[in-house]
Amino acid sequence: MRPNTISGRFAVLTTMFVVLAELFILLPSLAGFRLDYLESRMERAQIASLAVLATDESIALDLESELLATAGVLNVVLRRDDVRQLVLSSPIPGPIIATYDLRTEGVLQTIDDSLAALADRQNRVIRVIGAPVNQAGQLIEITIETAPLRLAMIDYGLRLLAVSAAFSILTAVLLFLAAQRLILVPIRRVISHMSAYASAPEDVRHIIIPDARLAELREAESALQSMQQTVTSSLKQKERMAQLGQAVAKISHDLRNILTTAQIFADRLEDSADPAVRRAAPKLVKSITRAVNLCETTLAFGKAEEPAPTLSRFPLATLATEVIEAETLAGEAAGQVEFLTDIPPSLTIRADRDQLYRVLANLSRNARQAIEATGQPGTIEIGAGETEDDWWIKVCDSGPGLPDRAREYLFKPFTGSTRRGGTGLGLTIADDLVRGHGGRLDLLRSDDEGSQFCIHIPRGLAMGADANR
Ligand SMILES: Nc1ncnc2c1ncn2[C@@H]1O[C@H](COP(=O)(O)OP(=O)(O)OP(=O)(O)O)[C@@H](O)[C@H]1O
Ligand SMILES: [Mg+2]
Fold first, then answer.
1. pLDDT tens by residue, 139-160
2. How many C-beta neighbours within 10 Å does residue 47 have?
3. Is residue 293 over pLDDT 80?
């Protein structure tokens, strides 16, 4: 049992407290013992003196000494009928140094007197006054030596201390055992659960089931349980995500190879004899190139970050038109969603063209999907402009606004999706890409009349990056 353990502390503290309690009992007990001692001497002296008074004649010296020795006193004085009479006497070994009147002594005074009696090692003579038993007179007065009283008090005190020590040890052991059973065993159980859980946190069998009888411990167990449940489920989710990530990476990798082959064939279409095929070929090549790029960036995303933007200056209106064309083609019901633009034709922007395409495509696709889900017609408008510091592009729609969940987990991967088949990555990717440009993506407004996202791309970064190129 080590002192820095709960059980060790418990045992030490219990012993200390019991000893302290016993000390508080010891002082009054000693005072009581002294009082009993003196009263019993007085009683004996009274009996001896009554025996002497019973005989009319004076008694022999031997008998008187014997009576006094039996009573354990030196002198006895009785006051009866207002007459003070020295009934028994013997020579006293020294002067009387103090007189104690037991009829008037208070509790504190008694304790004080007994401590003084214990402290004084010398044998002295004292006078003690008390009331005779059975009202056999007005007063009895004895003279005694202090040494026997002190010895008796020491003897009594030591016995009391021995009993206290035994009692405190017994109490400490009992309390220790009770603490072991009530506190330590359940605590150890929680600790062993925690260690087992720490060794395999994904294993639900290691999650603690609260069953402590102590309310506080049960509370701790419940808190631990809910924490373990959260940790385990988020670990599982992370594991699933990692697996999904691996799967996506594999698919993207193979898809890229397939698309590269398709790209080669598409290139050849440009030499086709059919003019219609020749016209469509560049668009097809562009689409396939974009798909290849997407696969590559997905692979890069699997490595935790998007590649740094490759900046170039290009007219924004053209890019927006491409996005709109792709979204119009992808639209479920023709004509349900109307696309508008409000972009000055001369506005050129310095950014990574493919990345910005993905940002606008994600925002427009979300808006289109939200409108289509309502079954009502709607509009999506891409507007843009520039200030001294940055370029801004707004994507506004007349859809139903973002659901609460999407707003709560805005830009958080995998969590904000409310769409069937949605992965919840679109806005995260868009936000990542814009931030990669040193810009920011804001949700300006979202209510039942529509949503507005705004992209800000700083000129500073673009110019700085340009200067380095
Ligand atoms: N313009 C919008 N109008 C209404 N809801 C929107 C709009 N844009 C996003 N949302 C909501 O935000 C959610 C998250 O969008 P996000 O693009 O991140 O994921 P997703 O569209 O569900 O899946 P994906 O990863 O395929 O894009 C969507 O499920 C949708 O509920
Ligand atoms: Mg989306």
1. 999 999 999 999 999 999 999 8
2. 14
3. no
Shortest-distance ligand to the CA of residue 453: 1
Q: Report which of residues 258 and 305 the model is more confident about.
A: 258
Rg (CA), the chain: 51
Instruction: Tell which CATH architecture fits domain 307-468.
Output: 2-Layer Sandwich (3.30)
Residue 72, token pair as written in the block: 């354990």
Ligand closest to CA 380: 1
Locate 75 and state its tokens.
Answer: 């002198």
- 245 CA to centre of ligand 2 in angstroms: 18
Asked whether 125 and 95 are in contact (CB, 8 A), the reply is: yes
Cβ atoms of residues 273 and 279 within 8 Å: no
**Domain boundaries, given as residue ranges, for the chain:** 6-173, 200-305, 307-468
- Closest atom, ligand 1, to C-alpha of 419: 29
Helices 6-54 and 61-71: angle between axes, nearest 10 degrees: 160
CB atoms within 10 A of CB 207: 18
* pLDDT tens, residue by residue, 37-71: 999 999 999 988 888 888 766 778 888 888 898 88
Angstrom distance (rounded) from CA 49 to CA 68: 9
| Residue 143, helix vs strand vs coil | strand
